[in-house]
Amino acid sequence: MNGKPRAERGELAVVLAGEAGQGVQAVESLLSEAFRQEGYYVFSGQEFMSRIRGGSNSSLLRVSGRPVRAWSDRTDICVAFDEKAVRHLAKRLQPETYVLGDGVPVGEGWRSIDIPLRKLAKDAGESLFVNTISAGILWGILSGRRETIAGVIRRFFSGKKPQVVDSNLAAAEIGMKLGQELKRSGQVSLELPPLGDRRGRLSINGTEAVSLGAIAGGCNFVSAYPMSPSTGVLVFLAKHGRDFGIIVEQAEDEISAANMVLGAWYAGARGMTTTSGGGFDLMTEAVSLSGMTETPMVVHLAQRPGPATGLPTRTEQGDLNLALYGGHGEFPRVLLAPGNLEQAYALAREAFHLADAFQVPVILLTDQYLMDSRYDVDDLPLPAAPAEAAIVQTGPEYGRYAITESGVSPRGIPGWGEGLVGVDSDEHDESGHITEDLDLRVRMVDKRLRKLSLVAEKALSAEWIGPEEAPNVVVCWGTALEIAREAVAGLGRRDLAVLHFRQVFPLPEEMRRRLEQADCRILLEGNATGQFGELLRQCWGIDWQHRILKYNGLMFSIEEVRAGLRKILPGEEVE
Amino acid sequence: MSGNPFDLDGQDIAWCPGCGNFAILRAVKDALADLDLLPREVVLVSGIGQAAKLPHYLAANFFNGLHGRALPVATAIKSVNPSLTVIAESGDGDMYGEGGNHFIHAIRRNPNITNIIHDNMVYGLTKGQASPTSRRGFQTPVQVHGVASDPINPLTLALSLNASFVARAFAGDIPGTTAIIKKAILHRGYALVDIFQPCVTFNRVNTFAWFKEKTYYLEDAHDVSDRAMAFQRAAESDRLPLGIFFAEEGRPTFAESAGVFGEDAVPLFRRLVDSERLGALIETYRGKPLEDQKGS
């Protein structure tokens, strides 16, 4: 199942593993920066435990001359900072994988190379040097250029005292010598993959993509309660808040955060909150209030496995139903689910536009996998014109809930114009006052629901990847996109396509016919019950011939998806 | 007073005849008019309950949101448009019970808003259950054997959180209540006005006569800058003082601390994203080949 040897794959997969606090991420940062400096595309992803010290965490680096943007289980070389990291990673090690480290267990499933990392670090002056030494070893094995890694180390430690920089350079040197020796002696035989183009690309992760997209969408108010894996967006916007005139508040709870967002929109700001499933649970009442008061709202929901606290630092596509049904009563909403970093940026921006234009809650569904995945994108296009709020200056007779054909009432804000702006959580009349006129109630419900068909007409298209007439189709949504794309491309079959949805509600109609006509529909979802599959069944009557589901807390790897598809679709693969 | 611009005709009022809410409504309207505010400059934010219906009975902007959630909404509104006068008002169950956590944290933020609580020591809209300010022993259809918990003292709670303005009024005295509300609105920062109010239908213990007998105004000599004294007076329980217990000006408000109005008072709805700056931020993520960086 492991496919071609690494040289022909045109890539190199490095895994770094150790306890929390040992500096796995520092090595990841140093190396990915060094690879990028040399002009490579780098995908980095992380899986880690919910603890500050100890345990076993790992980072994956895929390095290639071609774009790489998905999680893989293939490992060419692994540096393990402790013995238990190897057991933790066993399923991702192959017989040809080199595993380097202190007392690496000798196993049949990998090639152990014992390196006294801890002693080397101690000899170099400090146990923390294990990071720079490890980076040096890998760089030495790959015959990387000394000035590249040195430049990266200098920049990495630029805020520190000069002796910190010098001692880390010396530690890297020790590592590089060792790496070169491992290579010379033939103990490790690895090469850097062939280089592609050397254009300057953006290297971002999901957190940055969502945050930058929010700014592009005109976000100027953020309130949130910290919760993995969504907190990074709050941190990012706090860091840059003053530069962009964004009010950023850490609320006392998610209830407050969501209600603040509504208050902000009501007064004319463009607000967002960022949370995960458990926090969204607490926000559902405010989502319902957004529906009733027709106050726009943007919620970034970064999913992690539930129920309850679940696996706090891991990933799942398990909260689709929560986002779809959370909140009492009947009202329209929009659910967006970016498939990659470009989409995360674009859809975060679009979320503000849709919330504003249709006066509905818009929920942006991501997950830990996307938040923590970093890779190269060519560009994040700036909006042609800055987002302008869809608000009106009110006249003296203004009523917030004028019943219109489209269902969208002109939205005034307090203090702009002669009119008064009243919004109400109770059923209300056109001026926003409480009503128990039951005929008016029906007209108001109908008005609000008319917006749903409006939103549906504008639903963002799904993407069909592969031969148009392919009788077999893998259907996925959200962050599974790039994994499915690479897995299916690698199978090289002319009878197989991928259909990916970036808007999961309301559904874009234009792919419905093609999906119905497929002979074999394969559902690919990162949850246990196939929630999106059920939604397609409910909305379009789609039935599924096969389902590939995963819910152990990790994202699908390309290899897993390929293996799953090989089982379902026997026969020749055309390379 | 005639011709109050905040008067609103034609509303079908849901309060019982004789309810203290009428007096509070009068006092709020008089205070706003006395301060020469215009309805379009004022936003009332409320939750759910009989008290929370007040914004429907006067002419102003309003956000009648969820039970207990008025304060986060009001805090946000004031922060994105500081030129608005924002009043968060609701009943004792809404603000101190369902919204208790928000009450605590709103005080800490010191938003420049007025927080009016109709305190009748009972739940009205849900028909007579205990509220967080109900006294021990108060019997209701749910607290059949009498309330077994101590009541919240909103004043000492707010003072313990260093609220910048803490006051109590009694709806039986409309001019006195109006005067306190005016000072609360003029206060720059979070202002708590807990207003005793008889519930004529569900509270037969804490009646108009009971409040009348139990309450008295703080002496003119009371020093509103003395927080320890304010705490002592607010903790009195035999007789219940009214008036401004504590007031301190000059603390940074939430909007000021948010740091977006420092050089630019333009409310957020009039602002556009700085695309050039965003472009520059995005470019910081662009990797440059090593050659280009030499000498940088």
What are the SSEs and their pairings?
The complex is a heterodimer of chains A (575) and B (296).
Chain A: H1 6-9, E1 11-20, H2 24-37, E2 41-47, E3 54-64, E4 77-80, H3 83-89, E5 98-101, E6 111-114, H4 117-124, H5 130-141, H6 146-156, H7 162-184, E7 202-205, H8 206-216, E8 221-224, H9 231-244, E9 247-250, H10 254-266, E10 271-275, H11 277-293, E11 297-303, H12 320-325, E12 334-336, H13 341-358, E13 361-367, H14 368-372, E14 374-377, E15 392-394, E16 412-417, E17 422-424, H15 438-457, E18 463-465, E19 472-477, H16 481-491, E20 496-501, E21 503-505, H17 512-517, E22 520-525, H18 531-540, E23 546-549, H19 558-568
Parallel strand pairs in A: 1-4, 4-5, 5-6, 8-9, 8-10, 10-11, 11-13, 12-13, 15-16, 19-20, 19-22, 22-23
Antiparallel strand pairs in A: 1-3, 2-3, 7-14, 12-21, 18-20
Chain B: H1 20-34, E1 42-46, E2 61-64, H2 70-80, E3 85-91, H3 92-98, H4 100-109, E4 114-119, H5 154-160, E5 165-170, H6 174-186, E6 191-196, H7 208-214, E7 215-217, H8 227-234, E8 240-247, H9 254-258, H10 275-283, H11 290-293
Name the descriptors.
heterodimer, A: 575 residues, alpha/beta, Pyruvate-ferredoxin Oxidoreductase, domain 3, Rossmann fold, seven-stranded mixed β-sheet, six-stranded mixed β-sheet, 19 helices, 23 strands, 38% helix, 21% strand, B: 296 residues, eight-stranded mixed β-sheet, 11 helices, globular, disordered C terminus
